[in-house]
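thread: overnight batch results

M.L. [08:02]
morning all. the overnight job finished for the chain we discussed friday. pasting input first so we're all looking at the same thing
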Amino acid sequence: MSARLGALAGRAARHPRAVLGLAALLVLAGAALSLGLRTSAGTDTLVDRSSGDYRATQTFYNRFGQDAVEVLVRGSLHNTLLTGDLERLVGLEGCLSGNLPAAAIRQDGGPRSPCGGLSRAHVVKVVIGPGTYINEAVGVLQSALSAELSSVSSKESADAAAAYKVARAHGYSTAQAHAVAGEVGQAVSDQAVQGLVAFGASYNLTTYPAVDNPATVTQIAFEPGHPGVPKERLAYILPDSGDALISVRLRNGLSDHAQAHAIALIRAATAMPRWHLQHGQRMLVTGVPVVISDLAGKITGSLERLLVGVLLVMALALALVFRRRLPLLPLALALGAAALTFGGLALVGAPLTMASIGVLPVLVGLAVDYAIQFQSRALEGEAHGLEGRLATVARVRRAAARGGPTILTAAAATAAGFAALALSPVPMVRGFGYLLIAGVALALVLTITAGSAALAWTPRGGEGRLLAPVRALAPAWRGAGEIVYGNRAARSLQRRAPALGARALGGVLRRPRTVLLVALALAAAGWALDSHTHVQTDITKLVPQNLPALRNLNTLERSTGVGGEIDVMVRSADLLEPRVVHWMAGYQNELDRRFGYTPERGCGAATLCPAFSLTDLFSGGTAGLTATEIKGLIELIPSYFSQSVITADHHTANLAFGIRLMPLSRQEQVVAAMRAALHPPAGVSAHLAGITVLAADAAAAVTPTWRRLETLLAGLGAVALVLLLALRRPRRALVPLVPIVLASGWSALVIFCVRIPLNPMSVTLGALVVAISTEFSVLLAERYRQERLAGADPASALRRTYSSTGAAVVASGVTAIAGFAILVLSDITMLRDFGAVT
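M.L. [08:03]
and the structure it wrote out:
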């Protein structure tokens, strides 16, 4: 391996321009590809596509549409429903559904308007709102009344004609027969009036039903005798007297871009002057899908800020700490590795997730580390007076041959530690690990090839015009530090630092057992306290708190008592069998009782409350209904409404429940209770579905302490295996593992003390600590071994190790910490806490 690495570095050093040119082209291509990365914060980043709940959710989405985008209309229902605003609401819901006629679209802004865009895109599965409900209900009443009037008219004509024939048959004159027919017709008409009065009473009608008739709307929407109080069974569209709710379910299978575009069109439609309500009502677009879509939009902006931060902080750190020639070469190689890594991500068609954003600063920190180590080895030969192009090539080749295997071993062990993330149940965390492994490999290749070429091509003693201004930052920054802390303090620190380091090393040499025992005690305390570290799983606490959709979602919960939805998908050969309908109603009632919902208390005080379900189509309840009656009632319901809760073939139905915003751990308990209560009758299957269910599954997978321990032990095992294979001696492999194991315990102790909560990303902290500390430990241990093989005693070997490789490790450690620290610039809370923890 030494010979191969030396030969590779030597060839790159002999042809620096060609190697650097090719590397530059590849890096530019990778950067260009990465610009086309699509972002994703969808459910498949949280839960495996192969899981039963994910498959059930996709089946549900195909039948009934995705989780709803909610439009909350804030304002008195009296103004919203009993004035001309109702017709505007009807028009808005038609616009949102994409079902407006062409003439209406032309009137409302043409094909380029939001209504036209929704009509062309066909992205909406169904819209359920008060305007559509009242309009459809009025249509049903008008049809029933028209049928009744038509029946009366037909009967009057038929009876009058029959009376005329009988009169003529009995010898009445034509005039007399017409008179008899008129009397009979009048009698039938009088009887029909009594029938129509009874018909109206059955529907609580006192006037002709119409959308613009306040009496009709009052009868349909409000409780009898309680003006302004919406009917309890309409809570899914009229949650209280001050709010109305429009639910827009998008079709399944939309790309993240198409879904974001659809949400943008919905927002634009609600802002159209054509649909502005005239009594001061406000419209808020929200819902869990909107929060997720907006979060995906934030990902790109966060990556851009992180990139700028990485450039500035890494450049400054290198200028201050790495006082060598070409201080920015490690950063250039690291950015090249990052460009190739993210370009490859785009090439395979994978999305950019919240987790993969975190790869950028971490990878840059690691790649800078490899470049620093290699560059330090290559520049150590300068003290021997080697000059000229051949001497430079020889020096680079020797550095690759001597230091390359150690760097390669450390990187392989680091990658093995990252491989432990493959055990994570969260797909985006697994992707984070895979992406880091690929980045580490690319960083090594660039360091050995392009790094060697750059060292050979740059003449000694000069960095070129482009690097000179940045190089000048180092003395300027040190000068600023002297001004702040005082020249005397700065000089004192410079004098005392080596002495402090030597004194610390001396103490370790005198009492190695004591040091190890204290270190082990601290680590044991960390392992013991790790189970008490809080894991934050509340999705609303992990996303940017300035998201308008999140603020609107909180408003929705305060107004309606509901922040999300859990759907129960029920399937059977015939869902309209009485036994199936009765079971669904019983299941719903059981959950209502268990989670504190009553019609009197409403959703505000309940953990779970009913939303629009198949059972809501039976306003009088399901008790005693026969199969014929059930089918008859379903046929009376407009298909536009029934399609939201039962498919046309009557094989799949939906029982929907609203759920409050809460930590995912609590959602997990609710989901588990709902699942435990599912006991469908024979021949019927029932599955929970929706974003809330998938998020709860993710929480259940990441929060257990044993999961963190499993990942930690897997990481340690993978690192140990790589070191045994590479170093081939148990002692050489085990000695570097000691500080790695201790570091995992120390880090757990620190996290417990600082009380920063873990999250679905930072629960991988143990594996990350193992992976990154592996590199430092291996590099120092192997350098110490080389010094011992050269004849130095243990104390001298340690001093030489820490004065050479140790100095590079300090630089590497500072840049690695800086790479993680950059994450605190992210406005995504999960990434910010992840950066602070790591």
